[in-house]
Amino acid sequence: MAEDLDAIDWSILTELQGDGRLSITELSRRVKLSASATTERVRRLEATGVITGYRAEVDLPKAGFAVLAVVRLKYPGSRHDPLHKLLERRPEILECLRTTGDDCYVLKVAATSMAHLEQVVNELAAFGSTTTNVSTAPPCPIAARAWHRPTPDPDRGPQLPPMTRGSGQDGPEEAAPSRYGRSARRRTRSLR
User: Fold this and answer.
1) What's this model's pTM, rounded to 2 decimal places?
2) Which of 42, 49, 98, 130, by CA, is between 20 and 30 Å from 10?
């Protein structure tokens, strides 16, 4: 069940996604609330599971993981426990999305080398056929989103807010339309 969030809650989420280490004093100044009211709202967002944690962003190449890939896995059958155990054992698998369509899973994998990536993909291939795409450049920068309550479109249903893409170096920034809803399951893990 979705929580009933107001404009101030969405402002708090936007600010914390931009900088999860903001002090309550600075956060309250930005959202124009008292420190105690801001603290109460943040605690409520945490208690209801809207905010699930605070994480550090890791520069993967500087941490020794120079190869970033997306691996799509077609998983025949319905016993997913063995795959879930592999996901727990392999910190290189940063994200795993259960998807609809031809592929059952889409995984984001960070590896130290192509040989290391091949080891991970070979383990995944034991569960079904894989397709691997290696990133040739660092991830594209995405500006912080100004989150707000999604408004229903009668033809397409609720939509995420538009994203601003680009760093100004690739030409003018433009809003990209939302491509998907939030129905897919997602698991995120940090490197150990």
Assistant:
1) 0.65
2) 98
Q: What angle do helix axes 24-31 and 35-47 make, rounded to 10 degrees?
A: 100
**Residue 106 pairs with which residues in a beta bridge?**
72, 97
Q: How, if at all, do strands 152-153 and 185-188 pair?
A: unpaired
Residue 124 half-sphere exposure toward CB, CA atoms < 13 A:
28
Residue 171: partners with Cβ closer than 8 Å, 6 or more residues away: none
Share of the chain above pLDDT 70, in %: 73
Amino acid letter at 105? Y
Reported confidence tier of residue 11, pLDDT bands at 50, 70, 90? very high
Give the number of other Cβ atoms within 10 Å of residue 127's Cβ.
19
- pLDDT, tens digit (0-9, with 9 covering 90-100), for 88-112: 999 999 999 999 999 999 999 999 9
Q: How far is it, in rounded angstroms, from Cα 96 to Cα 94?
A: 7
- How many Å apart are CA 19 and CA 40, to the nearest integer? 19
